[in-house]
Each structure stands twice: as C-alpha cells, then as structure tokens.
Design a protein that fits this description.
The chain is an alpha+beta fold. The protein has 21 helices and 21 strands. It has four domains: 89 residues, Glucose permease domain IIB (Gyrase A, domain 2); 225 residues, no CATH class; 113 residues, no CATH class; 169 residues, Glucose Permease (Domain IIA) (Distorted Sandwich).
Length: 628
C-alpha cells in the first residue's frame, strides 16, 4: 500500500461509479469511502473492486462504501482535487465537532502551524531588539538597528501574505492567487489610504479603510471565499481560457470585495466596542477593565483592536493619558504566563520549544503571536485561562485609575509609561494577579500532553530476560501484546455485524461489547488518524504495528453525536491512556451497535496476529498477541 498511487485510485473510483454527476455526496470514515450515488446501477462494482488499493465494496444504509483501509483520507483528499467533494481531509463526514468558537480556533491554529517556527524566531528577535532599545544599548535611530528591526518585524507586518499560503492549502485555493490578494491588502498605497483622513471610494461606492498589516482574519476569510470563486470559475469557463481567466477574475473580484466588506465590518464592530467600553470607564471602570483585560487578545485575533487606536490617540491628545491601555498590560501578561505554565508542565519537547520563547517575547516585548497561535490557541485551555487572568487583572488596574501617559507596546519593559497617572501600585497588583491566575490555572488544569518520543511502542509480553530485553525482542521479531481498549464481553471478529470487519479484510482483531463509556489506547504510539466524529482512532507503534479502534458499527452516521475525543491526530499516546468517551445511551437510541472493534490493519505484513482474550476482558488486559 505504501507505493499506491492515490491520485490514480481516486480517479479510477470516480470513473467506475459513474463520474461526478452520479455522486450525490461523499464522505469517509476510518476505513471506507462512503458515497451516495444517484443511480447505483451506473456503478461498475466489479471494476471498482479490481482497482489497486480497494479491499472490497459494500452497499449498506443507502451508501456505496468503497473499503480502502487506513489510507482512505489520502484517497478522499485526492478525490477533492478532481471533484467538488473531499475538500477537507476527514472533516467532511462531520464538518468538525465542537462549538463554533472551538472549530474556529482549530482552523486558525492549523493555518498558523506551518509558519510557527519562523514566527517564534522572529518574535524572539523582536524581544532582544526591544530590550536593547529600552536599556539604551543601541540608538533606535541607528541605521543598523533600523535594518535589524525590519528583519525582525517583516514577518509580522506581512503576516497576511504568509497566511495566504497556508490558508490556500487548507481551503484548496491557488496559493499564488491568494498571495496576490494578500499583497494587495498590504500594498503601500492601500496602507496609505487606510491612514488618510479623506473619504475613500471604489467605483463610486464609499469604502471604509483599515490597516491590514499584521492582520489575521481578513485574509483567511478572503482565501476561503477565493476557493469557492475559483471552483465556480473552473466549472463555467472554457478550457482554452480557464487557466488565464480564473486567477485574473479571482484577483479582480476578491481584492475589492475584501476591502468593501471585511474592512467595514471590522471597523464598525471595533468602533462600536471601543465606544461602549470608553463609556463604561465613566461609571463602571472595573467592568470596562475586565472586558479589555479579558478580551483584548480576542479583539487582536479578529483585527478589531485597530478600532481602539483612534480612541487611544484621542485620549492621549486631549487628556495626556489613556485609560484604555492600562488593562492591556494584565491581558498580555496573562497570556504570556499561560505560555510559561505550558512550558513547565508539558511533556512535549516540541511544544516547550515554542512555549518558552513565546512566554519570553510576551513578557518582554509584548509579542504574543508565536505563543498564542502555537501554544495557547491549539491547547485552548491556556487561552481561556489567560482570558480569565486578564479579566481579573484588568478590572483591578482600571479600579486604580491606571493609565498610560504615552503610546507604548505592552510589555514589562514599558511599565514606566504607567507611573504618572493613577495608581501604579494597583496596576502592578492587577498585572501580578493576572499572571498568577493564568499561570496557576494552566499549570494545575491545563493539558499535560505526552512526550514526543518515548522508548518502546507497544506493550510487550513478559520475557525471562527482563523488560528491556523484551522490548528489544519486539522490534527485532518478538511477540507483543495489544490491550483491550474497553471492558466488556468478547465477540469474535467473524461474528460482528459488519461484513467488512467480519471478513477479516481490515485485518485480524476482536470485537468487544463495552460495559462503560470510556475507551483507552490499546498500544503506545502515534495517532495517525483521529476521526473528527470521534468514533475511530488509528495508532501506529514504533515497531510499525498499526491498530485501529472503531467505536460502534456504522456509527459514523451519528456525525459525532455521542462521542468526545480526548486526543488529537499526531499526538503520542501511551497504552492505557484515555482516547475518547462515548455515550452508549445515545448510540442505542440512534439505532446503532456500540460493539467496539479493534483490528491490526497491517496484519498481512506481520508474522501473526492472534486473539488471546475470551469471554470477558477488562480494558488494559491482553486482547491480541502479535508476532512482529
């Protein structure tokens, strides 16, 4: 299967089922491409089953199911490149789980992931330059310093262009067209229009301008829409001019559309927010401080912070100080403190490599992007705890009447700007409170994560030569044990109510009728597949054993209802670690069988896979014996 041509397989399946016009919808689960066909009679099932990589074909539940195995997400992705289906890996079968905000966070985190290390490096560079300038080690007007500052700041300034590339990959849009759109948003003349006082219009339509430098959401939204525009144009334009006109029309349409819609929505929302919060400072400063301290990083995420800049500027010009800026110190420090807690608590070396410098740049340069997008947002809880700490600290700072006497970037090094107005001691107390709350909550309740690299892959059967010798033997051809993922009655795989699993086509294994709602990892290894519906998990051990845990039969149809994953794809898990929880009541109410299936999907590449559990098993007890 390693040398399988996924592109040819996807094209072959498409052709043999009657083409795209015969497909009503397409999705996939852990092992099967699930198609709903307009007319099953048009599908050449025998030809589909002969395609290299296809195990078998099943027709059940109104679906035409092409069983492929572990590589089905790749085939599904290739299908998306030639059809309107399969555009987002395994997310299509359940358009992502969880509430809307969590889904949004997951999407933003994924888009930032490829540029995380350059972002972290540039942030650390900015922190060092900030310290050098603050302590008088270098003159900010020095030409060498100016050049180095440009090198450190360019990624942040042109961030929309970097995000255009990663967003285009996610949304299946043309990367270079996306770059052109992002380039227009940060083009010097557009930036100048955003700073100009006179009205701006496009083809007679009034346009509200904003600064798109360093922004995040506008380009992500633009590229998302771009993907739909491009796919629509590819369908309607003649083949002879399609390659030329698709990018031309996409750029010509998307740039003004983005400027006419995203900018005004962001500006109006931020102006309304800033006006309301400014009014709150008049009669409930603690509440205004709590909102600013708690939600500032959320405002930054959506680009709404730009609407506060004119208010701050006006405050400084008319009163000589800005009340709005004081709660921002606890806001930024709280997020940095959460990063610091992750750096100490996590057992993932890779996460620590981002969290530690992210905390440093947050504390001393006010640069939170690397840590926010690489640590706090992906892990979610640290971000939430940072919000809590920032809200409490911001309320305290506002109660003391703290204010900035000049415009500064928020960091510990900029604290002298807050000494002239209000109670500086209260600001320090609020900042310290924010740091303590965010750090303590993250340290005590944040995700611990697993080490990136742990010796040993699977639980190995005892050896008279000791555990170390047994582990070595497993890698060189010994016997290993795969544990039961749930407690319950053992069902021979041949007796389960799923023809594909029962036939052994997916590999040798067992079925277990679960007695409780918790599902555990049967081996130690890396999660290669975590279905967003929460019903299936694929783990590959360090020894190359591939184990699939499939909760229930045909439960993909529940679209995630009743399942709660406790892990994520790419994560390292230990044998016995919680994978997920299920709601057996909901599974039964939906009419599905909760029998949990566990198979070794690369059985053919191993010497033997033998079930050893009979009658009843407790989770963590031996279920399969594997000869490697």
């Amino acid at each position: 299967m390693a040398s399988l041509d996924y592109k040819s397989l996807a094209a072959g399946i498409l052709e043999e089922v009657g083409g795209e016009e015969n497909i009503a919808s397409a999705s996939h689960c852990a092992t099967r491409l699930r198609l709903k066909l307009h007319d099953e009679a048009k599908a050449n099932t025998a030809a589909v089953e002969q395609l290299p990589g296809v195990i078998t074909v099943m027709k059940a539940g109104g679906q035409y199911q092409v069983v492929i195995g572990n590589h089905v997400p790749t085939v599904f992705s290739e299908l998306g490149k030639i059809t309107r289906f399969g555009r987002d890996d395994d997310t299509s079968e359940s358009a992502a789980r969880g509430n809307l905000f969590n889904r949004f966070i997951d999407m933003v985190s994924a888009i930032f992931s490829p540029i995380l290390w350059p972002l972290a490096g540039a942030g650390l560079f900015k922190a060092f330059l900030k310290m050098a300038s603050t302590f008088g080690w270098v003159d900010p007007a020095n030409q060498t310093f100016i050049i180095m500052s440009a090198a450190a700041d360019s990624l942040f300034y042109f961030l929309p262009m970097f995000l255009a590339i990663t967003a285009a990959r996610r949304f299946k849009a043309n990367q270079f067209t996306a770059l052109a759109i992002a380039g227009a948003l940060v083009y010097p003349s557009i930036v100048a229009l955003g700073a100009a006082a006179e009205p701006v219009s496009f083809a007679g339509i009034p346009m509200v301008m904003m600064s798109y430098t360093s922004s995040v959401i506008p380009i992500i939204v633009a590229v998302w829409v771009q993907g739909y525009v491009e796919r629509g144009l590819m369908k309607v334009l003649p083949a002879a001019i399609r390659s030329l006109l698709t990018p031309l029309l996409s750029i010509a349409f998307m740039v003004p559309l983005t400027l006419l819609t995203v900018g005004p929505v962001t500006i109006f929302a931020s102006q309304a927010l800033s006006g309301a919060i400014t009014a709150l400072f008049g009669f409930a400063p603690w509440l205004a401080g709590a909102i600013m301290g708690g939600l500032w990083q959320v405002f930054v995420l959506f680009g709404m912070h730009w609407g506060f800049i004119p208010v701050v500027t006006n405050e400084l010009a008319t009163t000589g100080h800005s009340l709005l800026m004081a709660p921002l110190v606890p806001a930024v420090m709280a997020q940095a403190a959460a990063m610091a807690a992750v750096a100490i608590r996590t057992r993932s070396a890779k996460r620590r490599q981002v969290a530690a410098p992210g905390a440093f740049t947050g504390f001393f340069a006010g640069v939170t992007e690397p840590g926010i997008y690489g640590v706090n947002l992906p892990l979610k809880k640290p971000f939430y705890f940072g919000i809590v700490g920032g809200a409490v600290g911001g309320a305290i700072a506002a109660i003391g009447g703290s204010a900035a006497s000049t415009f500064v970037f928020i960091s510990l090094l900029s604290l002298p700007a807050y000494t002239a107005v209000g109670s500086f001691a209260t600001l320090l107390i609020g900042t310290a409170t924010a740091i303590i709350i965010a750090f303590a909550l993250t340290f005590l309740f944040g995700p611990r994560e697993q080490p990136d690299d742990i010796a040993g892959g699977i639980v190995v059967s005892p050896s008279t030569e000791g555990a170390g010798a047994a582990a070595t033997t497993a890698r060189s051809g010994g016997t290993a044990t795969v544990l039961a993922p749930v407690s319950g009655a053992i069902v021979p795989l041949s007796n389960v109510a799923d023809k594909v699993f029962a036939s052994g086509a997916m590999g040798a294994g067992v079925g277990i009728v679960p007695e409780d709602d918790r599902v555990y990892a049967p081996v130690s290894g890396t999660l290669q597949a975590v279905m967003k519906t929460g019903h299936a998990y694929g783990i590959k051990t360090d020894d190359g054993v591939e184990v699939l845990v499939h909760i229930g039969i045909d439960t993909v149809q529940m679209k995630g209802e009743g399942f709660e994953p406790a892990v994520t794809r790419g994560q390292r898990v230990e044998a016995g670690q919680l994978l997920a929880t299920m709601d057996r009541g909901k599974i039964a109410a939906a009419g599905y069988d909760a029998t949990t299936l566990m198979v070794v999907t690369n059985t053919k590449g191993l010497t033997a896979v033998v079930p050893v559990a009979v009658g009843h098993a407790l989770h963590g007890a031996p279920a399969l014996s594997v000869e490697i």
